[in-house]
Design brief:
With about 350 residues, the chain is of the alpha/beta class. The protein has a domain at about 1-190 and about 225-250 and about 290-310: 3-Layer(aba) Sandwich (Rossmann fold), CATH 3.40.50. It has helices spanning about 10-20, 60-70, 85-90, 95-115, 120-125, 155-175, 200-210, 225-240, 255-270, 300-305, 315-325, 330-335, 335-345; strands at about 1-5, 25-30, 50-55, 75-80, 125-130, 180-185, 185-190, 210-215, 220-225, 245-250, 255, 280-285. Helix 2 packs parallel to helix 4 (about 95-115) and helix 9 (about 255-270) crosses helix 11 (about 315-325). The longest helix is centred in the N-terminal third of the chain and has 23 residues, at about 95-115. It starts with a strand and ends in a 6-residue tail after the last helix. The model is unreliable at about 345-350 (pLDDT under 50).
């Protein structure tokens, strides 16, 4: 039995679905079900006895402690986080509450329970914390990609809150001996992603014939990782990662944001012909503190654990677009009033 936190969100739900498809080990899934947490993501597991869902907050120690006592997981995989830069700019308090205070309370609950385990169970236990490359800050065009030893230099409330949580994970390993593992991944894309992020937002708007809003001049660079490859990396780290270590997970797919949008337009023109999708590209006012470039060096996880991404950027994007085209009902269900208000707040005023 493993405990997954944030397992109804984009990456967490993909991980839970993938985990149960790969084997028979049960999952307890703790999720607060905020706007991006969606039980519809887990619909295929509705009648699967291996999946136990619990609604709750990682910051609620009583809830976490009760789950630990009842299910005695051999590992925890922590995906729970507020995770969108733009939302953190408009409302940083929730990011501090969940990513810092929530992680602290989760660690305290786990530390108390883990400390009382029999020796063999305590030695075998693992706490895997899933984080982001944004903790490392911004790179120049010619800078070397982020490695596990790159100094933290977060530039947004979101990345600062994730950097803080990473520091807490490190501290609990070094101070208390909690057997932790940390992964820092690049930009994920794939099925089930809430349409506030770049890739699903472009797909959804393009299908509807709406403007495709691109911040600034679209030259900001990100490394793109298909979510299925990320799930495989997390499994590999959980199975064989060295306790206390950090593993950077990247897709070897650096792309300018504008090129990402153009690729989506090209694939959609093949999958759903009849419209000039590229003509919908609209440049909007850049967001505050927009980091220029992220890039990940995944050499450590490749060398130590034999992991490498399977999908290329083009193959992963084609799979992603096909999924959104085939899941109109899912899209309709998440297109809530809150989502529409968020789009208006972030993009409509800056249309140019």
């Amino acid at each position: 039995m493993i405990l997954v936190t944030g397992g109804a969100g984009f990456i967490g739900a993909n991980f839970v679905l993938d985990w149960l498809a790969q084997g028979g080990e049960p999952v307890v899934n703790l999720d607060k079900l905020t706007y991006a947490g969606n039980l519809g993501n887990l619909a295929p597991l509705k009648h699967d006895a291996r999946h136990v869902f619990a609604r709750g907050d990682i910051g609620d120690r009583a809830v976490v402690e009760a789950l630990l006592r009842t299910h005695r997981p051999r590992a925890i995989v922590n995906f729970a986080a507020e995770s969108h830069v733009d939302r953190s700019i408009h409302g940083p308090a929730e990011f501090i509450a969940t990513n810092i205070v929530g992680t602290f309370n989760l660690l305290e609950a786990v530390r108390g329970w883990w400390s009382a385990l029999p020796d063999a169970e305590r030695a075998a236990f693992r706490f895997l914390h899933v984080s982001t490359d944004e903790v490392y800050g911004s790179l120049g065009p010619a800078d070397r990609p982020f490695s596990e030893t790159t100094a933290f230099a977060p530039n947004s409330p979101y990345s600062a809150s994730k950097a803080s949580s990473d520091h807490l994970i490190r501290a609990y390993h070094h101070t208390y001996g909690l057997p932790t593992l940390t992964t820092n991944c690049s930009n994920n894309y794939g099925p089930l992603q809430f349409p506030e992020k770049l890739v699903p937002l472009m797909i959804v708007n393009a299908i509807a014939g709406k403007p495709l809003p691109v911040y600034g001049d679209g030259r900001n660079v990100r490394d793109w990782l298909y979510v299925g490859d990320h799930c495989a990396a997390v499994r590999a780290v959980l199975a064989g990662g060295r306790v206390g270590e950090i593993y950077n997970v990247g897709g070897n797919s650096e792309r300018k944001n504008l090129d990402v949008v153009r690729t989506i337009c090209e694939i959609l023109a093949q999958e759903l012909p009849g419209r000039d999708y590229a003509a919908l590209i609209t440049f909007v006012e850049d967001r505050p503190g927009h980091d220029l470039r992220y890039a990940i060096d995944p050499a450590k996880i490749c060398a130590e654990l034999g992991w490498a991404p399977v999908e290329t950027f083009e193959s992963g994007m084609r799979r992603t677009i096909r999924w959104y085209l085939d899941h109109a009902a899912w899209l309709a269900a998440v297109a809530s009033k809150e989502y529409r208000q968020w789009i208006s707040l972030n993009y409509a005023a800056g249309m140019a």
